[in-house]
Design goal:
Structural class: mainly beta
Low-confidence stretches: 1-14, 16-32
Order of helices and strands: EHHEEEEEEEEEEEE
Number of strands: 13
Mean pLDDT: 83
Largest sheet: 9 strands, antiparallel
Length: about 270
């Protein structure tokens, strides 16, 4: 479908507003850390390292009574201007019924060096813990770590991306089974008159019916929506909405982790 219209700065603002609203939910995911759990774990385990409290995440794991998940982003020093690198400490905490914080017990932990990074053009908006029903086997239930990125690849060109990783706690060990996979992205750009594009990818992650090497397959159901604008002689600025593209990708476990094609990894440069 082609709809002629007069070029206006409001068009760019409309798409930018969608981008901003998509990111604005970031603050809602951090309320669970207001109890001070992240700060207490940081003081106990990494007293000599800084903690990025803005990105720290905490969440009760409803599948296991009294259990909480904590993510501690630990920034590293870097010599690159505008760059920042984070180690991630992922913790499983068993909390007592009586609320005595002195008896909080770490039952699983995983320190991932240089797990996240940002630079002058890309920043981490937030880190959220995903406790959806990822039952990978009768003995392995996973939780996710979702990271929202934002950046600008050119003036007036909003760009956002959300990724997920999965972790399992089994036989007293906490390990990552799904490397970082891009689920969603929004990006686009326009010149000062008309020509431009906008792409929106949305992905649903679910557990498949099949299995490989002892763990269930994962399915990514992906929808890509695109629009294009171009100045045409005697017609003004024409916006064209392209037919949506749908595809499903199956990820299989190889005995250590799920294999992820390069095209599904986080796309912000």
């Amino acid at each position: 479908m082609q709809l002629p219209y007069r070029p206006s700065p409001m068009r760019l603002l409309r798409h930018t507003a969608i981008f901003v609203l998509w990111l604005s939910a970031a603050g809602l995911s951090q309320a669970a850390c207001e109890s001070g759990l992240a700060e207490r774990m940081h003081a106990k385990l990494h007293p000599n390292r800084p903690l990025d409290e803005r990105l720290a995440a905490c969440k009760i794991w409803p599948a296991f009574p009294g259990r909480s998940i904590v993510v501690l982003p630990l920034p590293r020093e870097t010599t690159d201007r505008g760059a920042k690198v984070f180690d991630l400490e992922i913790l499983l905490i068993q909390r007592p019924d009586n609320g005595n914080t002195e008896r909080d017990t770490v039952i699983g932990r995983l320190l991932q060096p240089e797990a996240l990074d940002e630079d002058a053009t890309t920043s981490i908006q937030d880190i959220r813990i995903d406790t959806s029903r990822y039952v990978l086997s009768p003995e392995a239930r996973a939780f996710g770590l979702r990271v929202r990125y934002r950046g600008t690849n050119a003036p007036g060109s909003p760009l956002a991306s959300e990724t997920v990783r999965l972790y399992v706690h089994h036989a007293k060990q906490l390990r990552q089974v799904l490397p970082e996979v891009e689920l969603d992205h929004d990006n686009g750009g326009w010149d000062s008159t008309c020509t431009g594009h906008f792409d929106k990818l949305r992905t649903m992650l679910s557990v498949g019916k099949g299995s490989s090497n002892g763990l269930a397959d994962l399915q990514l159901s992906r929808t890509l929506r695109q629009s294009r604008a171009q100045e045409q002689e005697d017609q003004g600025c024409i916006e064209k909405t392209l037919p949506p593209k749908f595809n499903t990708v199956t990820l299989r476990y190889d005995g250590e982790r799920y294999r992820v094609p390069k095209s599904l990894r986080q796309q912000i440069p």
